[in-house]
Design brief:
mainly alpha; 0% strand
Length: 42
């Protein structure tokens, strides 16, 4: 890090994108678990 670098705060768009990706990954994980259960039941 250079002394001229701004504070370690990402811009709002980046934070929003990271939050959306986090939610998406949680949804994907839940969908995978659900799919495994459905496949296991059959």
């Amino acid at each position: 890090m250079l002394w001229s670098d701004p504070e370690n705060k990402p811009p709002k768009e980046l934070r929003d994108t990271q939050e959306m990706l986090r939610r998406l990954s949680v949804l994907m994980a839940l969908a995978m678990v659900l799919a495994m259960l459905v496949i296991g039941v059959r």
